[in-house]
Amino acid sequence: MSNTPTDPPILSHLDESGQVRMVDVSSKAPSQRTAIAEGLVRMSATAYKLLSAQQNAKGEVLNTARVAGVLAAKRCAELIPLCHGLPLSFVGIEFFPDDANHSIAVKTTCRTDYKTGVEMEAMMACSVAALTIYDMCKAADKGIVIEHIRLRYKSGGKSGEWHND
Amino acid sequence: MSNTPTDPPILSHLDESGQVRMVDVSSKAPSQRTAIAEGLVRMSATAYKLLSAQQNAKGEVLNTARVAGVLAAKRCAELIPLCHGLPLSFVGIEFFPDDANHSIAVKTTCRTDYKTGVEMEAMMACSVAALTIYDMCKAADKGIVIEHIRLRYKSGGKSGEWHND
Amino acid sequence: MSNTPTDPPILSHLDESGQVRMVDVSSKAPSQRTAIAEGLVRMSATAYKLLSAQQNAKGEVLNTARVAGVLAAKRCAELIPLCHGLPLSFVGIEFFPDDANHSIAVKTTCRTDYKTGVEMEAMMACSVAALTIYDMCKAADKGIVIEHIRLRYKSGGKSGEWHND
Amino acid sequence: MSNTPTDPPILSHLDESGQVRMVDVSSKAPSQRTAIAEGLVRMSATAYKLLSAQQNAKGEVLNTARVAGVLAAKRCAELIPLCHGLPLSFVGIEFFPDDANHSIAVKTTCRTDYKTGVEMEAMMACSVAALTIYDMCKAADKGIVIEHIRLRYKSGGKSGEWHND
Amino acid sequence: MSNTPTDPPILSHLDESGQVRMVDVSSKAPSQRTAIAEGLVRMSATAYKLLSAQQNAKGEVLNTARVAGVLAAKRCAELIPLCHGLPLSFVGIEFFPDDANHSIAVKTTCRTDYKTGVEMEAMMACSVAALTIYDMCKAADKGIVIEHIRLRYKSGGKSGEWHND
Amino acid sequence: MSNTPTDPPILSHLDESGQVRMVDVSSKAPSQRTAIAEGLVRMSATAYKLLSAQQNAKGEVLNTARVAGVLAAKRCAELIPLCHGLPLSFVGIEFFPDDANHSIAVKTTCRTDYKTGVEMEAMMACSVAALTIYDMCKAADKGIVIEHIRLRYKSGGKSGEWHND
C-alpha cells in the first residue's frame, strides 16, 4: 500500500527474510481516509419471507447485524494479525434487501484520519454483519451463502482514490 | 435449530414479541457436534504469483491466516451477538490453493460437545482466515474477492447430520 | 455464596491473609441457575419524547441496548476480576418504558447450568444496557441517571432461591 | 453532542432514516476533554462492617474495584456499540466510604485529547468499579444496590463546560 | 500431552503435514486438573526499597498485579493461539518478596475440571502478574528482569502428576 | 518515566495517597518512540531437536509465536491495568535459535509516535511469543523455562535514549 504506482507489487507484510511483521508506518503522514466494502447474503425464499412475515423481524435482524458490524470494525486489529489499530471516526452499515432474489446486500463505510487505510475495518464490518444475518436466519435456512465480500472504494493516503466497479 | 423437521421454520433469535434474545438452551442435552464451513479467496494472477515467487511467502501467509482463523473461532460469541459461548474441542483450518484459477479455498472444521452447534464458529473462522489472506495480499491486489462462505456440513444435536453439496 | 445459612457472612473473595483470589469451585456441583437483575434509566421529558417522536427511534435504541447487554453478559468475567467464566445458556433483556415518569426500566435474566451463579452476568447486562441507552440519548440529555441496579432474584446452587422485593 | 446550544436536541446516533450509526467525527478538531461521573454503592450494615473488620479487606476490595474500573474505561468502545475508540490520557477512580450510611461513593475522572468526549468512559468505569464492589461483597449481602450513576462534569469540545450539581 | 510415557515425544500442535491446528480433545474425559507456575521479578535495590518506603505501595502494587494475573488467566486462550478455552474453577496468585535479593517470586495456581490442562493459564497468569510489577516499578528501574517463568507442578489427565523441582 | 534525571525515582502509578491510577499524560507531547525487549526460551535437547526433525516444524512454531506476539502487543493495555492504550506504528518479532544451547532468543521491537513509551508493549509481545513457543513444545518438554525477559533499549520522550547491555 506504500508502493508508488510504478513499484512492482509486493506482499508488504513479509520482511526481507520472508517473515511476517507489521508494516512500519512511523514515517507516514496521517490523512483523511475512507474505505467502502460490499457483500451479499443470499438465502432461500422461505427464510427471506420470514424476515417480512414475522412481526418486527427485519428491523430487529438488521439492527442486530448493524450493531455487530460496527463493533467488529472497532475490533478489527484484534482479529487480523498484522492490521494496525487505529481510531475510527465513522462506521456506517447499510442493508439493501432484494425481494426478487431473496438476498440482502451489505455496504459498510469506515473513516479514519490516521496513517493507514481502513480497508480491513470495512471488510471486517461487512463480514461480521453478514455472519450475524446468517446466525439469525440459520434456523430457517442453514445453507445461506455469503457472497462477494470485496472492497469497492478507498481514498486517502499516498495511493489516493481507488474504485472497484 | 431446535425445531423438529416438521416444525415450520422460524427465526429462533426473536421472541414472541419479535425482539432479539439468546435462544434458551438450558434444557438441551450436550452432544458431540461438528461443523464444516468453506469459502474461497479469489485474487489476480499477479498477487497469486507473489505467493509462490517471494521466498517463504505462501507458508507464512497461510500460517498467519490459519492462526487468525483459530483465534477467531474461539472469540465467535464476542462478535456474533446471540451466539452462545462454548468450549471448542477442535478447530482445524485447511487451505487448497488452485493455481489455475489463482484462488485459495478455505475449509474450517470445529467441534464441541456442548448444547449448541458450532456452525457460527466454523463460519467465523473461515471468514477471518479469508480476510487475513486478503490483508496480507492487498498490497498486490486490492480487488481480491471473498466468495461463497457457507456451511458444508453439520452433525450432532437433535437435527442430526446435514450436508450442503 | 458457599456459606450455609448459619455461617457468619464473609467476603469470600479474600483469603485467610486478606488477599484477593477467585473462590475455588472445584468441588461444587453444577446446577441449573438463574439470576434476574433490574435497573432504571431516568431521563428528561425532552429526551424521552425524542424516543417516540423521531421515526423508528425507540426500536433502534432499545434493540441496540439489548444487543449490548447480551454481549456484555457474555464478557462479564473479562471485566469483573474475580468472576468465574461460565457458559450462559440464556440471556434475555426486557425494557419497560414508563411514559409518565419518562424512564425505562431494564430487566435482565441470565441462566447457566454451571457451578457458580450468574448474578454478576445479570447485573453487568443490566448496567451495560442502561449505559447504552444513556449513550444514545445523551445528545438530548447529558444528565440521564441510572438508578437502582440490583439483583431481584436468584435460584440454583446450595443457597437456593432468593427474592429481593 | 455536535449540536450548538440553539439546535433542537436530537438522538445523534440515528441517521435520517432512523437507523443506528456511529456519529461521523472526521471533521471535528481534537481538544482537551475531561469527564467526571459518580455513583453510589449502598450495602447492609453487616456487609459494610466486614470491609473494616476483616484484615486488609477495604484496601483489597477498593483496589480491585479501582483496577477493574480503569480497565473497563479502556475497553468502553468494545461494550458501548456506537462509542468511538479513543486514547485515554488519564483514568482516576476515587472512593468515598460513608460509615453512617454504609455506602461507598464512586467518582471517576477520564481525560483525552481526542475529537469526542469521554463521558461514556467515565460512566463505564464508574459502573464497573461499582459492580466489582458488589461482586466482592455479595457473599455478605446479595441485595447491595448501585445508585445514581450519572455524569457530573464535562469539559472540552464545542459544547464546552457542563456541570450537573 | 496426550502421549503415554512410552510414546516418543511430538509437537502435538502440528498435524501430519506439519501445519498448526488445535489438538482435538473431543474424546478426552474431563478430570480435575491443577497447574502451578513460578517466576521471579528481580529489581534494583532502589526500586525495591520504594515498594516499602512509599506509603501503601507494596500492597497496591501486588494487589494490582494479582488482579492482572487472574484476569490474564481467564483470557489465556485469546492470546495463545492453539490453547483451548476452558472454565477455570480457581486462580490464585501469591507473591514472595525477598528483601535480601530485592526480588519478588510469583507463584500461580490454576484449576479446572475440563479435558485439557491449565498449564498455559498458570504460565500466562505468572507472566502478566510479573509484567504488571514491572510496569508499576519501571519509573524507578527500567532494567527490572523477569526470570525463570516455568511450570512447577501439574496434576490430572492421563499423564497424572508431574513435578519440576 | 516523567521524572527528569535529577528527580528521585518514584512509583509513578501511585497517587499522593498511595493508590493506583493511570499516569496523566494530558500535557505530554507526542514523539517518535521505540522500545526493544528480549527474552530466552530454554528447552531440552529432545524438544529442540523436534523443531528441526519434524517436517516444517520450526517455521510453523515460530510463525505462530510471531503472530501471537504481534497480537499481544496490540492488546497490551487490556492486560496491564495502568498502561495507556496507544496506536502502534510497528511491531516486529525476531527469533534467534541457538542450536548449541537448545534455546531460542526472542527480540521484539515496538514503535509509536504517541505520548507514552512502548516498553510494556515490547515486553508483552516478548512474553507472549515465548509462552506460545512453550505451548507448542510442551508436549515434548513441560519443563521449558522462559528466561531474562527485559527491556534492552528505549528511545523517544523526555528521558531520551536508554540502553541495557
Estimate the mean pLDDT confidence of chain A.
91
Spell the H/E element sequence of chain A.
EHHHEEHEE
Strand adjacency order, main sheet of chain A: 2-3-1-4-5
Give the end-to-end Cα distance of chain A, rounded to a whole number of Å.
Answer: 20 Å
Subunit structure (chains A, B, C, D, E, F): Homohexamer; trimer of dimers.
Catalytic activity (chains A, B, C, D, E, F): (8S)-3',8-cyclo-7,8-dihydroguanosine 5'-triphosphate = cyclic pyranopterin phosphate + diphosphate
GO molecular function (chains A, B, C, D, E, F): cyclic pyranopterin monophosphate synthase activity
Domain Molybdopterin cofactor biosynthesis C (MoaC) (chains A, B, C, D, E, F): 22-157
What does this structure look like?
Chains A, B, C, D, E, F: Keywords: Lyase, Molybdenum cofactor biosynthesis. Chains A, B, C, D, E, F: InterPro entries: MoaC, MoaC_bact/euk, MoaC_sf, MoCo_biosynth_MoaA/MoaC, Mopterin_CF_biosynth-C_dom. Chains A, B, C, D, E, F: Pathway: Cofactor biosynthesis; molybdopterin biosynthesis. Chains A, B, C, D, E, F: It catalyses: (8S)-3',8-cyclo-7,8-dihydroguanosine 5'-triphosphate = cyclic pyranopterin phosphate + diphosphate. Chains A, B, C, D, E, F: It comes from Pollutimonas subterranea. 6 copies of one chain form a homohexamer. Chain A is an alpha+beta fold and 165 residues long. Chain A has a single domain, classed as 2-Layer Sandwich (Alpha-Beta Plaits). Chain A has 4 helices and 5 strands, in the order βαααββαββ. Chain A has helices at 45-53, 57-74, 76-79, 119-137, and strands at 33-42, 88-98, 103-112, 145-155, 162-163. Chain A has a 5-stranded antiparallel β-sheet, covered by helices on one side. In chain A, α2 packs antiparallel against α4 (119-137). The longest helix of chain A has 19 residues, at 119-137. Chain A is elongated, with a radius of gyration of 18 Å. Chain A starts with 32 loop residues before the first strand and ends with a strand. Residues 1-6 of chain A have low confidence and may be disordered. Chains in contact: A-B, A-C, A-D, A-F, B-C, B-E, B-F, C-D, C-E, D-E, D-F, E-F. β4 (145-155) of chain A pairs antiparallel with β4 (145-155) of chain B, so a sheet runs across the interface.
